Amino acid sequence: MRRKLLATLVAATMVFSMTACGVTAPDTSSTTGTASIDDAKTPTSGETITLVMAEVNPLDTVVGMVDSKFKEEVETRSNGTIKIDLQAGGVLGSENDVVDGMLGGGGTVDISRISAFILTPYGGEKSKLLSLPYTFVSREHYWKFATSKLADDFLMEPYENGNGIRGLFYGEEGFRHFFTKEEITGIDSFKGMKLRVSNDPVMNGLAESLGANPTVVSFGELYSALQTGVVDGAEQPITNYKSNAFPEVAPYMILDGHTIGATEMIISDDTWNKLTEEQQNILIEAGKAAQEYNQTIADEQEAKTLEELKKDGVTIIDVEDKTPWQKAVQSVIDDNIKGQEELYKQIVDMK
Predict the structure, then answer these.
(1) pLDDT value at 69 more than 50
(2) Among 97, 103, 126, which Cα is nearest to 199's?
């Protein structure tokens, strides 16, 4: 009873907040012929269902565009019988908040696009390998993994761990780069800096290997943390950096490309098990189409955004020799592949 009351209060607060921000809250009213996924154990053929999908970034980012493509493919392939209620811009909380709500089922979010490393604190030992610095030497290298049989095994890791979620497909949002409030010239510039990291051992280790002080700040609070000096810098893919207005408070970016932004579309087991086999296959095929779209737009969007940043006055620092960076972070790799050396080697050898 207490849990149901809390859920009701949270939902009411969210509707008020979203309305105040000019964002339309999901329609929860009862409509003839339409049901949320919670309304029935298994939707009957021809019945329209709505799946709530969370995205922390705006829709004009690479991941936002891929989300929209996935939504379009699902709704088209299902002839409109599966609706995706895509809630972007972090209105449903941070990636960690959303995953916490999906664990074990029973939450209000059915599907979410997350950074693969978000699963690390939840026992995602395989997922951790994807965020290790300088593992992937190119986009092509990453996509060889993301479309392989090995990737299918990685996607099922949270399900096998009993976390109550499973992966549908992998994507990427570009290589991640550091950006700062003050001017930087190279790897030595990070010594003593307060760098924002997520609650993730790999990113903590990466910051420390550069001589910086890792500081955990949620993504939704990052802009204000930079603005007020709580942190001196952070890291994001290029399109996310611009779309979230970070250049306003941190106008220096160094293109170190320490890791690719591997992403994963996850669905709760509770939701998955309520779908028919036909509906499950629709999500799988829509995911494949979204993957192909991701590969098509990523390079172009990143190059376009980089030029826009330069025109806007952002200082972009190229890194011609990444050898010093790779040497500095080697201990992070060694510490995090223990017990999975062979698996890590399989990924590296795909290049």
Answers:
(1) yes
(2) 97
Average pLDDT over residues 156-174: 95
Please, where are the H alpha helices in 229-263?
A: 238-243
Q: Residue 55's pLDDT band (boundaries 50, 70, 90)? A: very high
* Cα separation, 290 vs 312, whole angstroms: 31
* CATH class entry, domain 2-27+46-348: alpha beta
Q: How far apart are the first and last CA of the chain?
A: 53
Q: How far is CA 238 from CA 81, 139, 145, in A?
A: 36, 14, 22
Of 345, 347, 217, 242, nearest in space to 301 by CA: 242
**Predicted structure pTM score:** 0.84
Which residues lie below 8 Å from residue 75, measured CB to CB, with a gap of 6+?
A: 82, 83, 84
Residue 282 has which token pair?
A: 């629709």
3-state DSSP assignment of residue 93? coil
Q: How far apart are CA 153 and CA 141, in angstroms?
A: 18
Structure tokens at 335: 């510490």
CA 190 to the chain's CA centroid? 25
- What are the extents of the domains in the chain? 2-27+46-348
CA pair distance 161, 158, nearest whole angstrom: 5
Phi, psi of 208 (to 5 degrees): -65, -35
Kindly state the tokens that stand for 92: 């449903």
Least confident window among 6-10, 38-42, 190-194, 231-235 = 6-10
C-alpha pair distances (Å), 135 with each of 124, 132, 149, 297, 336: 17, 6, 18, 22, 12
What CA–CA distance (Å, rounded) separates 36 from 187? Answer: 50
The label of the residue with tokens 């609070």 reads: 221
CA 104, CA 174: separation in Å to the nearest integer? 31
Residue range 15-49, pLDDT digits in tens: 434 444 443 333 433 333 445 555 545 555 568 99
